[in-house]
Design a protein that fits this description.
Distance between the termini: 80 Å
Oligomer: single chain
Largest sheet: 3 strands, antiparallel
Number of helices: 8
Strand content: 15-25%
Mean pLDDT: 88
Shape: elongated
Number of strands: 7
């Protein structure tokens, strides 16, 4: 029976090839127009959201010591689509999107990945995370040394920004900066030990006095000075009182 169906279809294709081809192309066009309509709906929605995103990312950057940031989202959307050109339809839609940014006055906008230094990239990523934290259902965010390449007052602003995010969802932060470590509600010290010839990794929750010592080590390096201890204690007390 299956063979009969196959040869019947083959015969039909030979006898009525042009009609079948025309009918199939009409079906293809109908599906294409539906897909095209949805693709442009998605594209237009993205462009609407992009206007708000640009303004808010610039606002977040200013709070992270990037005062002169300019940010623009550029869309490359094909104007004409052909039913038989499947290349323009991707899983993510028909748009090619580029993030253009400038961190300094007088500098032109360029692609983000071409102009950002390590510290700038850290802050722009934190700006994105901060913006989306307020608009998502995340219960946890993990920052793995997102403060790389920054120090001083900028590090403190990054710490405050992560503290703001922690009011929305839980934040786990891996850091080597005292300004960031002192801002946390809890401090977990991760260390390695050699046990029976094997290196093992351990962690320990630190109490206040232990945190003072750990932050002091971050401030002074190998040798812990009295000034570093006092500075560490002041940092922790300042953040605990907020």
């Amino acid at each position: 029976m299956s063979y009969l169906e196959k040869i019947t279809l083959d015969i039909e294709m030979v006898k009525n090839y042009d009609e079948i081809l025309k009918s199939t192309y009409i079906d293809l066009e109908n599906e294409f127009f539906k897909l095209k309509e949805h693709a442009f709906e998605l594209s237009n929605y993205r462009k609407t959201i992009a206007v708000s995103l640009e303004k808010n990312i610039i606002k977040e950057c200013k709070e992270l010591d990037l005062e002169d940031t300019q940010f623009q989202i550029i869309f490359h959307t094909p104007k004409e689509l052909e039913p038989l050109n499947k290349e323009v339809f991707k899983e993510t839609g028909i748009d090619e999107v580029d993030f253009l940014i400038s961190f300094n006055q007088g500098e032109p906008l360029r692609s983000l990945h071409k102009v950002a230094s390590g510290g700038e990239m850290s802050r722009i990523m934190l700006a994105f995370k901060s913006y989306f934290a307020n608009r998502s259902l995340y219960s946890l965010m993990v920052f793995d040394e997102i403060d790389t390449g920054v120090s001083g007052a900028t590090a403190k602003k990054i710490a405050k920004k992560m503290a703001e995010i922690s009011k929305i969802c839980q934040v786990l932060c891996i850091t080597h900066l005292p300004q960031v470590a002192s801002m946390g509600d809890a401090h977990i010290h991760i260390f390695k030990e050699l046990i029976h010839g094997r290196t093992t990794t351990h962690f320990k929750y630190l109490n206040f006095d232990e945190r003072v010592e750990e932050v002091a080590l971050m401030l002074s390096g190998d040798k812990m000075s009295l000034y570093a201890l006092e500075h560490a204690k002041a940092l922790l007390e300042e953040n605990c009182n907020k």
